[in-house]
Q: What sequence folds into this?
């Protein structure tokens, strides 16, 4: 088969796969009303091979979004409720003695799922948080001298209560950096809230929803993300943004090389969702607040503490080449 034929097949395959993703996004938006940007960012995060942190008050749909993603995308799903007495073994698994075989057998924990919801992750102790975050970083779990790979795709959606609430253990900067994106869902508008009050319960609606795609489709799309073209001029823009955070006095800590790479990967996924073969500056601008907000550390006296405000401030300060 000629290379042109292979490219044509891959292009047709990509088109069909993205059609399925469009259907998935439509179904998600029927469940999570009025939050199309947050839903699309969540999808881009998954396709970019990252993990998602949702920080917001209880009751705005964080858990529903994670469960809906798993069901509509056809992923195996486990929810871990993080509490102060949760142990690392409750996440990764435990070895149990088998009397018949006179040996220990490892029983995998809930982390061995394709989509893991770490609910209220900042209510667990730092040691327990680290067990999950290490699995996120390595894509594997070590037990009984063996290294056990986690399934693919492996997507962690962690929810976090605002740190001012009682009984929380804030994630340190090094662990926050493991998340490709952080988003907030926020309150619905009055009209959509009325629709929620009058309409079907979201959980019942979710249970009636069928998967529209599958694991193979998502794995193919994750491969396609890396093929989205990023020009030298676009990389100049990314480096200018990163350099500004390192040199500007408003930030105590600037963006790391990993953050810059995360920004590029997220923009590639965003561009692909919009049927573009190359990343444009507006793709960088669309994902930047979600990618850098939890990585930037402003001066204490800086009033713009909100992650989105920090991202917008950065975009305003750095012109597009």
A:
């Amino acid at each position: 088969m000629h290379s042109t034929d292979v490219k044509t097949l891959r292009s047709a395959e990509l088109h069909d796969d993205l059609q399925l993703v469009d259907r998935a996004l439509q179904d998600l938006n029927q469940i999570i009303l009025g939050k199309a940007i947050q839903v699309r960012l969540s999808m881009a995060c998954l396709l970019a091979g990252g993990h998602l942190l949702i920080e917001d008050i209880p009751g705005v749909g964080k858990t529903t979004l994670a469960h809906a993603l798993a069901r509509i995308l056809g992923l195996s799903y486990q929810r871990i409720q993080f509490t102060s007495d949760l142990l690392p073994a409750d996440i990764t698994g435990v070895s149990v003695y088998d009397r018949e075989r006179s040996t220990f057998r490892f029983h995998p924990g809930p982390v061995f799922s394709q989509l893991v919801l770490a609910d209220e992750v900042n209510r667990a102790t730092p040691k327990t948080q680290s067990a999950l975050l290490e699995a996120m970083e390595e894509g594997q779990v070590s037990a009984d001298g063996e290294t056990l790979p986690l399934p693919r795709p492996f997507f962690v959606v962690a929810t976090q209560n605002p740190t001012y609430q009682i009984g929380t253990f804030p994630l340190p900067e090094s662990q926050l950096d493991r998340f490709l994106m952080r988003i907030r869902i926020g309150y619905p508008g009055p009209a959509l809230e009325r629709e929620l009050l009058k309409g079907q319960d979201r959980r019942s609606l979710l249970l009636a929803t069928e998967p529209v795609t599958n694991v193979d489709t998502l794995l193919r799309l994750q491969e396609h993300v890396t093929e989205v073209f990023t020009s030298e001029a676009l990389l100049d823009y990314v480096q200018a943004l990163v350099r500004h955070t390192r040199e500007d006095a408003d930030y105590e800590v600037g963006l790391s090389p990993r953050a810059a790479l995360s920004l590029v990967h997220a923009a590639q996924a965003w561009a692909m969702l919009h049927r573009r073969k190359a990343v444009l500056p507006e793709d960088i601008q669309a994902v930047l607040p979600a990618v850098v907000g939890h990585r930037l550390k402003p001066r204490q006296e800086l009033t713009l503490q909100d992650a989105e405000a920090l991202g917008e401030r950065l975009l305003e300060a750095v012109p597009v080449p």
